[in-house]
Automatic annotation (TrEMBL):
GO terms for cellular component: membrane. Belongs to the glycosyl hydrolase 20 family. Pfam families: Glyco_hydro_20 (PF00728), Glyco_hydro_20b (PF02838). Residues 123-440 form the Glycoside hydrolase family 20 catalytic domain. InterPro entries: Beta_hexosaminidase_sua/sub, GH, Glyco_hydro_20_cat, Hex-like_dom2, HEX_bac_N. This is beta-N-acetylhexosaminidase. GO terms for molecular function: beta-N-acetylhexosaminidase activity. It catalyses: Hydrolysis of terminal non-reducing N-acetyl-D-hexosamine residues in N-acetyl-beta-D-hexosaminides. GO terms for biological process: carbohydrate metabolic process; glycosaminoglycan metabolic process. Transmembrane segments: none annotated.
Amino acid sequence: MRKQFRVFRVRAQTKQLSDVIPLPASVRPDPAVTFTITAGTAVSAVGEAAGVAAHLNLPISADGSVRLLLDETLAAEAYRLAITADSVTLSGGSPQGLFWGVQTVLQLGEVLPGGVIEDAPRYAYRGAMLDLARHFFTAAEVKAHIDLLVQFKINHLHLHLTDDQGWRLEIPGWPRLTEVSGGAGTGVDGTGPGFLTLAEYADVVAYAAERFVTIVPEIDMPGHVNAVHVAYPELTADGQAVAPRTDAEVGYSSLVAGMEETYAFVEDVIKTVADLTPGPYLHIGGDECLSTPPEDYRTFLARVLPLPGKYGKRAVGWHEIAAADLPETAVVQFWRIEGDEPNVTRAAAAGRQVIMAPADRTYLDMKYDADTRLGLDWAGHLSVERAYDWDPADRLPGVGEEALLGVEAPLWSETLRSVADVQYLTLPRLPAIAEVAWSPRGSRDWESFRARLAAFGPRWDAAGIAYHRSAEIDWP
Ligand code: TNX
């Protein structure tokens, strides 16, 4: 972190208090003063605040001029940052709010502009998704990705752990899921095998929790299950072995709704994943079940949607699940590119919460433009401006602000082969979607955003991050 401050030294003098992404809810600059962090600057923080202070990487001292404290009059994720010539006071409604305030301080750099920021998120759920099934990323790589996400106050990481090509989480009692379907040759094009052991998953969950990020595990069903059938042919309709698939087709595999063995398997997996996951959500997929007859789809969901609740979790599913009766606590994740989705509108009217992830605005695996060397284009091209210039509360009729749990930016990995590929598609669009999810609607402005975004170029260059130098941004 000291290094991060140093990277900013050259440009630090020109920073303004509002040079932060996502834009804070309220900024009152005091241009007459700055506070400079030097080798002698210490932080004072006690109790839970001290744990958060560690993320500033400054020495801790009882009389430090940077003070971190908890203020229970603030909302849990809210913080207040007051910068004067001789002190910095950061108050948070909870350690999580303090942590977001720390991210703001880290973005402002070594010479902090004077004034007061009062900040709180628009949405409780600000998510990113990483697909570990089409191409596996190790626990260390996922942790590094979390470091990137939290800089933009993303607080949920949805892990797409299973799909036709591979199964990426160890499940006791079902060893072939990972031995076979997490082994060599799995992943799109047969590259990117691997899986998280129980200990590795727990390590990722703990690392995320220390950064106030909730892991949302997804076990995709009843479609997207070829890897299950490769490992356990007894779960197919005819008990016959199926061939592994490393192409990028979707919609051809399905668990069998009319077989009790299906539900024994599913309940075992859901119980295991629920036990491993401290967060409140368990994503059961439900998307693109093109080879599951609609009647079977509803039968399957009637049995499976209550299971996360049975094990203490809220079921999340892609918006197709809104065709079924949803438990009260279920969450619908909308991903469609155009048109209405009457089932989602109906679910929202009945009080179900919705996560907005329309593919044409939030899918980080879409190409930026026709020249982008990675990614897909079925939802069109997703420029930085398109990722920024939309509003979640306007997207679906009857699904307004009060129905929204939040916003998510999914990254599917069919075309990804490395961490650099992840960075290339994530930056700089993730910061745009993070601002959509955090900042007050009325404060958002593309020209302001692109100017603030430009300042990240040198930081990313210095850190060796493979971001896309989009021509939409005037990088310095
Ligand atoms: C659709 S959108 C999918 C995924 C693909 C993705 C590629 C959704 C819920 N499912 O299976 O990976 O498109 O963009």
